[in-house]
Amino acid sequence: MIFSNKSIQDILNNKKCQTRRLVKEGEELRDWDASSIGGKHQIFVVNSKNKYRVKWKVRNEYVIQNKRGGSTLGLCDCKKLFTETETRCHAGWKPIYLEFIHIKKEKLLNITEEDAKKEGYKSREEFINAFWKINKNNLKQVGAKTNPYVWVITFKRRS
């Protein structure tokens, strides 16, 4: 999962445990009966040519990247952040995993002050301004003055 450098630092400092991603056309959230493996899991799927594929799933773990197609980020024994390709020089490197705990769909502007803090921001207003800036290219598709739907993903860090 791709995060900005600020968000990565917030995750490492235990200041971020939630992320919001724009809902794209054809995406939907479904419940999947997984009683054979211990209960019901929410699954985020994408409808592509009438075929569904899993994009994100509760209880799965996902690695952190700082750019599309970038290397997996992790920590070495010295607690510094390095990419997977830099690990030859750093002992004890382990990738940083995020375990998804909950996924829901909501309107962007419905974020609460409490959730803005879970996003790593001091206030709701600060988060919304940052979200518009980070997603400016994607928001052109939905219009800058709208209140788009977002996926709210709550996670916990595993390393």
Essential attributes:
159 residues, alpha+beta, Sulfate adenylyltransferase, 4-stranded antiparallel sheet, 3-stranded antiparallel sheet, 10 strands, globular
CATH architecture: Roll
Overall pLDDT confidence: 82
Beta-strand fraction estimate: 35-45%
Under CATH at level 1, the class stands as: Alpha Beta
At the third CATH level, what is the topology name?
Answer: Sulfate adenylyltransferase
- Given the structure, what is the number of helices? 4
Secondary-structure element pattern, one letter each: HEEEEEEEEEHHHE
Biggest sheet: strand arrangement? 1-10-9-5
> What is the CA-atom radius of gyration, in angstroms?
17 Å
Task: Indicate how many domains the architecture comprises.
Answer: 1
Taking the sheet with the most strands, its summary is:
4 strands, antiparallel
Secondary structure tally: strands? 10
Would you identify the regions where 5 or more consecutive residues have pLDDT less than 50? none
Q: Residue share in helices?
A: 10-25%
Overall shape: it is globular
Instruction: Please identify the structural class as seen in this structure.
Output: alpha+beta
Give the N-terminus to C-terminus distance in angstroms.
15 Å
Protein architecture, described:
The chain has 159 residues and is α+β, with helices and mostly antiparallel strands. It has a single domain, classed as Roll (Sulfate adenylyltransferase). It is 18% helix and 39% strand. It is built from four helices and ten strands. The chain has a four-stranded antiparallel beta sheet, with no helix packed on it. The protein is globular, with a radius of gyration of 17 Å. The protein starts with a helix and ends with a strand. The model has no long low-confidence stretch (mean pLDDT 82).
